[in-house]
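Exercise: predict the fold of this chain.
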Amino acid sequence: MSEVKGGINRNLALELLRVTEAGALAAAPLQGRGNKVAADARAVEAIRAALADVDMRGTVVIGEGEKDEAPMLYFGEKIGNGLEPEVDVAVDPIEGTSLTASGLPGAISVVALAERGSMFTTHVHYMQKLVVGRRARGVIDLEMPVEWNLRRIAKAEGLPAQELTVVVLERDRNKDVIAQIREVGARIKLISAGDVAGALEAALETRFGIHCMMGSGGATEGVLAACAIKTIGGDMQAKLVFKDKDERELAVKEGHQPDRVLCIDDLCSGDDIFFAATGITSGELLHGVRYEDVYAYTQSMVLRSTSGTMRIVDAYHPIDKLRAKGLLPEQVAIR
């Protein structure tokens, strides 16, 4: 760890921005076309090519490829141009493949980097999550009941518990959590996909009016979210969720304590963290790709932990150059 600490180039933030822009621009022509595998394949190809030019010796420690049966940025894949620094990489070329395929809001392309050996890694697919912003940092406990946490969060926020808004991924496995939130009387924002964006909205509570995120979602998304949440001063706890005993045994083989509550530093212990996300379809967190005359427009979020800076970047990409790079197929007509 000492070899890389302090050695990560500040410019990696903008290099990551170019990576997620490439993923979003490659996937965007397939939004609403009903083929999430094809969209994911285009995003993976574009992100892999963009990552190859980044000054780093990166290793993918957690990603989506195996779970989604997509062309992988696979676990253990070496990426970057081989120069220092040595880093862990968490990546989701399309966070919200179903949203992209259906033309629904909130799909994003996401990448995070941190010092080598600092990110949580697992092949287990799901984890229980509890996410809050700065005001409620340090008051949450995933092992306590939903009501206990909501009342603690409400006190930290200076609100009645009934005035909290909780984002929850709409899945059958979250029905019990939803019922418990309803009993307290808090509002719920149900999302069909996109729990990295949901976690960020919770961590940026004053910007989006979301006070916490609860329920289970993807493990990859959990690590990506933790990287972002740590940079902006929020808090998060998580616990692995197993669909069967084989997954539980897998976690043990990976060296994890299956029932342990993971704090934010367990999910990403790095001191120098970079996070970038670019919108594919427009949502509350980020605008999606749109085509304007001779340009394609993107909006991205770029975070770095050491400075605490959050940048929202609007960019215009010449369509003729995107076609030359293969990011926009010739057969896609742009008005």
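Check your answer against the key: Residues 12-27 form the longest helix (16 residues).
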